[in-house]
Amino acid sequence: MSHLQRCPPVKRTGECHYRQMYFDGSESRGTLAKETILFDTEDDGIESVSNVEFGCAHEIIVGFNVGTGLLGLAYGKFSILKQFSNKFSLCFETFSDDQSSGHSFLALGDGARTTGQSTSLFMRYGHYHVDVERISIDGRTINIPNQLTPIGNTIIDTGTSMLNLAEESYSEFKTHIDSLLDGHLNSFMDGHLVCYNGTIQHELPQLPTVTLTFYKGASLELDPTSLFHQLEDEYFCLSVMMSPKIDLSIIGTNALQSYNIGFDLDNETIYFDKISCDYLD
């Protein structure tokens, strides 16, 4: 999610160039522009909105998932959300090729779905923060150091692909994962990723489920298809990394698969509803 600052026009051309960086190393560079954008409405109509400010990217560098662009949904001046409404929802279908129906979608304004379990949403420095109180692996709770659990210790960032855990939490997490899989799967490093020989589908019965529990009791459950990704035909990797921010964890889109996430900025509340996006189409 982006929080783009206004930039001065470049002399002679009058163009305004931008550079937006994300926590996982993704980056977008290009020219700030205005255009008329067409949106589908709930009654199967089309609504035209003029003078929408957006970044026309000349270069996109992605940290993990390859895409055609990056959509900023923070509350900064140039966010597409800020130009329309303080309420939106995102539904993420399962990303794996054999299960995905391709029906992930974004709803803005009155069409946003804000149902399910909820927790407090804190907006700080252009980012959406939540408070994770507990992380459990197959029901076994791992330690989150006290100094890493102030209000708003975790960022929800759809510009980031994977779950990034604060340093000490990640160390505890990896130790528990290793102990669960030890003797079953051989691990190795592929860059910064912890990987295992084999396929997710074949190893599915041995792979754990992880639950993030938030303030007020809402929870986000990561099943094996959200916790691991098939990087190559012969091996798969853990979709969890150490956060680049020592005292902050970051929840990326892989962890949000099979959920509708509703943001109500006016009431500072976020909703988690485990559901197939097909039912919302």
From TrEMBL:
One of the protein's GO biological processes: proteolysis
Pfam family, one: TAXi_C
CDD domains membership: pepsin_A_like_plant
Positions of the Peptidase A1 domain: 1-273
Gene Ontology MF annotations: aspartic-type endopeptidase activity
Keywords, ordered alphabetically: Aspartyl protease, Glycoprotein, Hydrolase, Protease
PROSITE patterns in the cross-refs: PEPTIDASE_A1
Keyword presence, Transferase: no
InterPro entries to which the protein is assigned, alphabetical: Pepsin-like_plant, PEPTIDASE_A1, Peptidase_aspartic_dom_sf, Plant_Aspart_Prot_A1, TAXi_C, TAXi_N
Family: Belongs to the peptidase A1 family.
Official protein name in the record: Peptidase A1 domain-containing protein
Lineage: Eukaryota, Viridiplantae, Streptophyta, Embryophyta, Tracheophyta
